[in-house]
Amino acid sequence: MNWSVAFEPLLSWPLLAALLVPLVLLAVVGLWFRQRGAWLRLVALGALGLALANPVILDEEREPLKSVVAIVVDRSQSQDIGDRTAQTNAAVEGLKERLARFRQFEVRVVEAGRADAADDRTETRLFAALESAFRDVPPSRIGGAVMVTDGQVHDVPGASAITGPLHALITGEEDERDRRIRFESAPRFGIVGKPLDMTYRVIDTGGEAGSVDVRVSINGNQVSVQRAFIGQEMSLQITIPSAGRNIVELSIDRVPGELTDTNNRAIALVDGIRENLRVLLVSGEPHAGERTWRNLLKSDASVDLVHFTILRPPEKQDGTPINELSLIAFPTRELFVERINDFDLIIFDRYQHRDVLPILYYDYIAEYVEKGGALLIAAGPEYAGEQSIANTPLISALPAMPNGDVIEKAFYPRLTDLGQRHPVTRGLEGSAQEPPRWSRWFRQIGIEQPEGEVVMKGADDRPLLLLDRKGEGRVGMFLSDQGWLWARGYEGGGPHVSLYRRIAHWLMKEPELEEERLTADGRGMVLDIRRQTMRDEAGPARIITPSGKTLDVQLNKSEPGIFTGSVETSEIGLYQVGNGDLTALAHVGPVNAPEFADVVSTENVLRPATEATGGDVRRLAATGITALANDISLPSVVPVRGNAEASGRDWLGFRTTDDSVLKSVSRVPLFGGFLGLGLLLLALGAMWYREGR
C-alpha cells in the first residue's frame, strides 16, 4: 500500500489564486489590527480554499520490477580447446541455478563469439552481445552481467560504456603454453616469376628461446624449409608461380604441452600479376579490319603491342630509290630469330607469303608454338590462294588447311555446342537469341580437315573459329576478316571486344579461360567450388578438411560449362578440393584469424573493465568455496543495493532495483460529499456567529 496526497483543483490554479489571495490579505490585515473574529475568518477562508483545491488521498498498488542480469557465454572456437567447453557449460548451469533462487532477478543468457557461416570475422565480440541483451532495459534495472570466457575478447570498450557491475569467469588453466607463427608483412600482390619479400615471426608464450624449422609452401607445394629464431622477425623471399590467387603457407611443428596447433600455420593470399603481355601483330596488307585488332590490343593495359603492316612487298618495283623511301624496314631477323621467345602471342592478320619472311623463319615460328608460344591466324581471301602461309613450313602449327573456297554470302556467326561451353565464347552478349543479336558477316574462308575445337560456325555451318593446342603452345584460327563490321556498329554491331580479347588471352594461357579448371574460395565459413569443364557432367568434388576428414559435395550445373557447389564448414584453414584429375586449394575463414592469434586464457584483458564497474574477474579452475563438477569452483551470488560493494572473496554481487509498475490507484477526496460540505458550513457558520455578537 502506497499512500499519498494530491490536489485536483475545481478551478485552475491562476484563477484560484486570483480569488483567494485578496481574501487572504484581508484576513491577514484583520489579524494585524486584532479585529474581532479575525481567526475565524482565516479558518473559514482556509476551509474554502481547501474545498476549491480539492485534496485527494491516493492509494497506489505497485508491483516491484526485477533487475536484469545477463550471462554472456563465449562460444568462440578458442573455447573448444581442452576442457574449456565443459567448464563453460558447468559454470553457466551453476550461475542459472544460483540466480534462480532470487525472485528479484531476471536472467538473460546470450551466447556470442560463433560467427555466421558467411561472416568473415571470427573475433570474440562479447560486449556487442551484452549491449544487445540490455538494449530494451533502462539503466536503473540493469543488475549486472557475468561473462564466461577464456578472456580473449576483442571488443572491450571504455569503462564509461558499461552499466552495472561486470564480472568475468575465466575458463582454461593457469600457466598455459602456446606457440604460433604469424606474418609481419605480406604484400597482397606480386609479379609472376619475380621474387617477393615477406617477413614473419615465431612466438612462444612459454618464453622459450632458440630456433625452429619453418616449412614454406605455395599453393600446397612445399618449396623450402627455413630456420627461424623464436621471437625475432625473419625475412622470407618467394617467387609467385602463377597469375591469380596464390596461397603462401608457413607452418611449424607442434611442441609438447601446446594448447593447439591451429595457429602453427600462417596464411598469406597473394594475387599474382603477370607482367605486360607482349604481342606481335603482323598485317599482311592494309584493310578495314586491321585497325580493329590494333585498337583492341592497344586499349588493353596488360598488353605491350608491336605492330607492323607490310605496305611495300619485295615484288613491288616502281624504281623509287631506297634512300628516298620513308618506310621502316621489317626487322625480320630481330623479331623472328633473336627475340621471338620474348613474345607471348604472334598474330598474322591477313598475312600471305611474299618472301618478306625467309622460308626458314616459318620453321622458327612453328618451333616457337611447339615450345609454348601462341599463334593466331586472322584469315582473309589470301589464305585460300597460292601464296597462303599454309603452303609454308608453318603448316605443322596450323589447325586446318584451306580448300580454296572463299564463301561470299551473308551469314550470322553462331556458337557451336562446344562454343556454348567454351570459356572463350560462352555467354557472349547476344548469343542466346536466334538469330543472334549481332550483325551479319559476308565472307568466310573454307577449310578442310579441321583440328582442335570448333567454337563458332558461319555460312552453311562451316567452321569459323578454331582453337587448338600444338605441343606446349596454342593456335587459333579466325576464318573471316569481317569482324570489323561489329566494331563499326553495322546492323547494331556485336561483341567484338569481348570475343577478340578472350581469344588473345586464351592463347596466352590466362587461367580464367582454361577449358578445364577447378577453383575454390572461402566465403566466411562457406567453401564455394566452381568447376569449368567441356563435359556434360562434372561429378562430385572430394574435399579434404584441415583436420584430414573427407567429404563429397555434388556439383550442379549453373550455366553451360559451369558447375558449382558449396558447403558450410566449421574448421578454419586450408581445404583441398579435387575433381577428376584437377585439384585446388582454398582457405576458409579469416586469414590469420584474431580468434587464434592468441589462445592462452587470460584475466588481464577484462580486468580493467570489471574493476571499473566494481566487478571481479577470476578463474573457474581456481580453488573456491563452492566446488562443482569438471574441476571448477563457482562463487556465490549475492543481491546488493545501490552503490554497495559488488564482489567479495567468494561471492559476486548483482544490484537490485527500486523500479515498480503501477497496477491500480484508489482515490478518496478529503473535501468531497457531505463531509466537505459540513466542514465548510461549520467554518462559515462559526464566522457568522462570531460576527453577529
Molecular structure report:
It comes from Aminobacter carboxidus. Keywords: Membrane, Transmembrane, Transmembrane helix. This is Glutamine amidotransferase domain-containing protein. The protein has twelve helices and 38 strands. With 693 residues, the protein is α/β, with parallel strands linked by helices. The strands form ten sheets. An eight-stranded mixed sheet has the order 16-15-17-18-24-23-22-20. β22 (453-457) and β23 form a beta hairpin. The radius of gyration is 44 Å and the shape is elongated. The relative contact order is 0.14. Mean pLDDT is 83; it is low at 623-629.
**Rg from Cα:** 44 Å
Low-confidence stretches: 623-629
Described by the principal axes of the CA atoms, the overall outline is elongated
Largest sheet: 8 strands, mixed
Strand content: 25-35%
Number of helices: 12
CA distance, first residue to last residue: 49 Å
Structural class based on helices, strands and sheet pairing: alpha/beta
Q: Kindly state the mean pLDDT as a whole number?
A: 83
Strand order of the largest sheet: 16-15-17-18-24-23-22-20
Tell me how many strands there are.
38
Please bin the fraction of helical residues: 10-25%
Keywords: Membrane, Transmembrane, Transmembrane helix
Protein name: Glutamine amidotransferase domain-containing protein
Organism: Aminobacter carboxidus
InterPro entries: Class_I_gatase-like
